[in-house]
Write a structure and sequence with these properties.
Layout (H helix, E strand, L loop, with lengths): L3 E12 L2 E7 L2 E3 L3 E5 L6 H8 L7 E6 L2 E2 L5 H7 L1 E4 L11 H13 L16 H10 L15 H14 L4 E5 L7 H14 L4 E5 L3 H7 L2 E6 L2 E6 L1 H4 L3 H6 L10
Helix pairs in contact: 3-4, 3-5, 4-5, 5-6
Length: 253
């Protein structure tokens, strides 16, 4: 099996003459935390939408575990083990924390849409749901209504529901966006913890997060890959520093 769990070859997306993603070649190594960074408008989220098939590429290829998935539908990608979280917390606010995780676990039972089933039929999932909540430090919140949770804890819950889908590759879209320092630290440590035995590709603006946990970084500018490599190398790249002008010390600011 290839060292690369995900590859793109000349991945391109055009919108009525505007090229949002231009000939992007990505190689995400199995077991790594890989960050996609770049200034606003660089094409990061468009790239994520292409990888998870919310958008159809204009041209190019996407390979997952060596298989061409360019023409696959979003549900097919998810069933293969590519699971994505979004910038905005996507949990059910009026269910408890435990119930949110059980929904993710229902896929294996094949009863996700069997809303007429008794809730007791889901109790067999409680053990695994509690294990996942413990993994993201939310076991004590199991019976809390999600709407009553602080924002950072909701993001941790979203990671738990993502883990419930048994991802081989997790795509995290700005997991620390809008958080205070304490929540950023908690979620960063959580990402590092759940990355054991998994591969994570993340879009992230916070450079202290990227520098602290990522094995490799790809920098996008105007839809194209500007630089790639470890943080120490990329952060000293003159082109990257120029792309981030406006910060006092380039990428590290």
């Amino acid at each position: 099996m290839s060292d690369f769990i995900l590859e793109t070859k000349s991945l391109t997306k055009e919108f009525k003459g505007f090229t949002a993603v231009a000939n992007v070649d990505l190689q995400v190594q199995r077991g790594h935390i890989h960050a996609l960074i770049g200034p606003n408008g660089a094409g990061k989220t468009t790239c994520f939408n292409l990888l998870t098939k919310f958008l159809v590429p204009t041209s190019g290829q996407i390979l997952f575990n060596g298989n061409d998935i360019t023409s696959h539908k979003p549900a097919q990608i998810a069933r293969m083990g590519v699971i994505r979280s979004f910038q905005i917390s996507a949990v059910f606010p009026h269910l408890t924390v435990l119930e949110n995780v059980r929904i993710g676990l229902q896929r294996k039972l094949g009863t996700t849409f069997h809303f007429w089933r008794s809730e007791r039929s889901l109790e067999q999932l409680n053990g695994r749901a509690m294990e996942l909540l413990a993994e993201v430090d939310l076991a004590s919140f199991a019976d809390t209504l999600t709407v009553d949770m602080p924002y950072g804890r909701k993001r941790a819950l979203e990671i738990a529901t993502t883990l419930a889908m048994e991802p081989e590759l997790m795509l995290l879209d700005e997991p620390t966006q809008g958080m205070g320092h304490e929540d950023v630290h908690r979620v960063t440590e959580l990402i590092k913890k759940v990355s054991a035995g998994r591969t994570i590709l993340m879009v992230e603006h916070n450079m202290s997060v990227v520098s602290g946990i990522c094995d490799r970084i790809s920098v996008l500018q105007r839809g194209a890959v500007l630089a790639e490599g470890p943080y120490e190398q990329v952060s000293k790249n003159p082109q990257v520093m120029e792309a981030y002008m406006g910060t006092e010390a380039g990428v590290g600011a």
